[in-house]
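step=encode ok
step=design start
structure_in=
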């Protein structure tokens, strides 16, 4: 393990200095596209201003015989588009796959200056992050990059979940973690074939009524991802990086998608993936605080003055702790409003600088 003194030193001579803090930028929606799919690539000029993060996916979801076309297509997308305020990320193939190394060797020299974050799938432990950390430093130095590329890990194996703390702590490049529910389900030998979301069999049932033993007993579906997501959130917050829910594969079920995203938002996640254009506005809506919550937060913050003591607001007790909860909502609302005039108007907060 590196000592605290050299943790932030570049890992190759000439590489940019790694960040001390992960810069906050909106990332409510990470929109996936396949750069080998010309129909999808043609849609990007219209999608880039709508999403917080555009992610070129080179890993699962891209056919094996299209891997090189996808890598080359991503270079063309980077060269042919102005991303403005939108972040540009890539999901490379895993480092044990036949393509992972060449993804990095090609993309960093070709488009490293435009890449904000590299998403690394199937991360098992700190050793995977140490590997990519050193390799990125070498490639950045060779390419003369002045800004370090950040790393985002997908948590999608049982071992990765077990090692979540050390993954978050492994490098100052660590930007965040996403949940990969499909791979994680397979690795854990869970018996769901869905890509994220609930399962009708994962439920609790109301107790029998002794006076009506034959009456129908209500059932309540549970969230099979709750444990992992909560663990991820704690690990990310402890290490100053950002937690994300991952994919929701039932594209047609926009209602359940919104519910799953909201569960993640309420637990502390900052965003989710969109796999299809229909999921973009769902993620943006869910991961932006609701107007009524922003209004409530303002009211409590105003009522609490210097933030200490206890007061009653609308019949509820508010104190030093609850005002902190309200500041979390208000802080997110302010950051989003500063970049989005519509949200600024809805929240009654300062909007983007003219
Ligand atoms: C899911 C899809 C295969 C659906 O595609 P399609 O059948 O073409 O849908 P539509 O006909 O409704 O599409 C309408 C038009 O929109 C374009 N389109 C579709 N998706 C996208 C997109 N993501 N970005 C841009 N444009 C998109 C279509 O081309 C249609 O265009 P047109 O015909 O001109 O009108 C498809 O959406 C898709 O492949 N999505 C991405 C899937 C993906 O990225 N999968 C990997 C991530 S999830 C994962 O890996 C699991 C995770 O790691 C884990 O372990 O849990
Ligand atoms: Mg996966």
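sequence_out=
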């Amino acid at each position: 393990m590196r000592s605290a003194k050299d943790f932030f030193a570049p890992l190759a001579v000439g590489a940019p200095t790694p960040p001390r803090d992960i810069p906050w930028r909106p990332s409510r929606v990470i929109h996936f596209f396949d750069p080998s799919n010309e129909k999808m690539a043609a849609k990007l000029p219209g999608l880039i201003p709508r999403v917080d993060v555009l992610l070129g996916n080179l890993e699962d979801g891209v056919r094996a015989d299209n891997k090189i076309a996808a890598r080359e297509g991503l270079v063309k997308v980077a060269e042919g588009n102005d991303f403005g305020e939108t972040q540009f990320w890539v999901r490379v193939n895993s480092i044990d796959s036949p393509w992972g190394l060449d993804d990095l060797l090609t993309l960093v020299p070709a488009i490293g200056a435009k890449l904000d974050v590299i998403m690394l799938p199937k991360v098992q432990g700190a050793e995977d992050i140490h590997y990519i950390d050193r390799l990125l430093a070498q490639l950045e130095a060779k390419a003369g990059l002045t800004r370090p590329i950040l790393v985002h890990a997908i948590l999608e194996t049982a071992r990765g979940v077990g090692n979540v703390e050390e993954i978050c702590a492994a490098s100052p490049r660590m930007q965040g973690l996403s949940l990969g529910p499909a791979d994680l389900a397979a690795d854990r030998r869970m018996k769901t074939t869905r890509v994220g979301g609930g399962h009708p069999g994962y439920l609790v049932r109301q107790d029998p009524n002794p006076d009506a033993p034959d009456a129908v007993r209500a059932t309540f579906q549970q969230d099979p991802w709750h444990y992992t997501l909560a663990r991820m959130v704690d690990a990310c917050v402890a290490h100053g990086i950002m937690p994300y829910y991952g994919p929701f594969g039932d594209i047609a079920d926009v209602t359940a998608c919104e519910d799953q995203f909201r569960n993640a938002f309420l637990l502390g996640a900052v965003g989710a993936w969109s796999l299809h254009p229909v999921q973009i506005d769902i993620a943006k809506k869910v991961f932006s605080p609701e107007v009524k919550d922003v209004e409530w937060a303002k009211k409590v913050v105003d009522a609490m003055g210097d933030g200490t003591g206890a007061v009653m607001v609308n019949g509820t007790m508010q104190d030093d702790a609850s005002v902190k909860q309200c500041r979390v909502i208000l802080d997110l609302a302010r950051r989003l409003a500063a970049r989005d005039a519509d949200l600024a108007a809805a929240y009654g907060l300062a909007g983007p600088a003219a």
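step=design ok
step=annotate ok -> The pocket of magnesium ion (ligand 2) is lined by residues 60, 121, 156, 180, 182-183 (CB under 6 Å).
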